[in-house]
Design a protein that fits this description.
Layout lengths: L2 H9 L4 H20 L10 H26 L3 H23 L9 H18 L6 H32 L1 H9 L4 H13 L4 H9 L7 H8 L4 H31 L9
Helix pairs in contact: 2-3, 4-6, 5-6, 5-11, 6-8, 6-11, 7-8, 8-11, 9-11, 10-11
């Protein structure tokens, strides 16, 4: 057995015990969320979303585990798989922000944040054009861009709705629409960078992120694992900064918006 596989199996064996523990943790999240009535004022309760998310994760990971075995052998299949990942990220972000036709514009910050980093990795040869390497790296970056886009979009749109009077006052003083909206939206949207900043500041002291642990399980030395994790964290900060900046720009220009109430 490969050393990394053996270590992984000894740390987290895939057996009935693991399945029972996963179910117990999911039920805990559902019960606590239901007990304290967590969730938005309107829409489905959070406990129902947690249950659905857990079920979807199980189904999707099972399917992906089977698909990847084929994707790693075909460049065309790899390209299609990455496109599906991107489209899913765009649709997820769009649905979180708005119910009108502007949801698809979330493709702009997600693509602009992730695309250049992935292209740089491929052009420099740091990541080969192989599914086994490209899929996890792209997935990490897409996930960071998705999170930043959703947080920046929701915070800026909520702030504009609550402080509409300030925007109108700025317009009355002679500010153009973009600048008036930007003065309100930008500080709120900038909070979307905080999770990435906190993760980078506390890495090694509070958390050991997935890339670091994965490299160790794969047989890499701690120095190699640390170098890869450092790259991932810095790349994520760059991706999320671009995603936040473009999201707030789209909101300030009125391109990414919510339907009027």
């Amino acid at each position: 057995m490969h050393r990394g596989t053996a270590v992984a199996a000894s740390l987290l064996p895939v057996d009935k015990t693991l399945g029972i523990l996963v179910m117990a943790l999911l039920l805990t999240a559902i019960i606590v969320s239901a007990r304290y009535h967590l969730g938005p004022r309107t829409g489905p309760p959070r406990w129902r979303q947690i249950a659905l998310a857990g079920l979807r994760a199980a189904v999707q990971l099972s399917a992906v585990s089977l698909v990847i075995s084929y994707v790693v052998t075909s460049v065309w299949a790899l390209a299609l798989f990455l496109l599906v990942m991107f489209a899913t990220a765009v649709r997820t972000a769009g649905r979180r922000l708005t119910s009108n036709h502007s949801w698809w514009l979330t493709a702009v910050p997600i693509a602009a944040g992730t695309g250049p980093v992935v292209a740089a990795l491929l052009l420099t040869g740091l990541v080969p054009l192989m599914g086994i390497a490209l899929i996890p790296v792209t997935g990490i970056l897409l996930g960071g861009a998705l999170t930043a886009t959703v947080l920046a979009g929701r915070r800026s749109l909520d702030e504009l709705a609550e402080r509409r009077g300030e925007v109108e006052a700025a317009l009355a003083l002679g500010f153009v629409s973009r600048e008036a909206r930007m003065r309100v939206a930008r500080p709120a949207a900038s909070d979307a960078q905080l999770p990435g900043l906190d993760q980078t500041r506390t890495v090694g002291l509070v958390t050991l992120p997935g890339a670091f642990v994965g490299m160790l399980l794969g047989g890499a030395t701690p120095i190699m694992a640390g170098a890869v994790q450092l790259f991932v964290l810095i790349a994520l900060m760059a991706v999320q900064t671009v995603a936040v900046s473009l999201t707030v720009e789209l909101v300030a220009r009125g391109r990414l918006c919510r339907p009027p109430e």
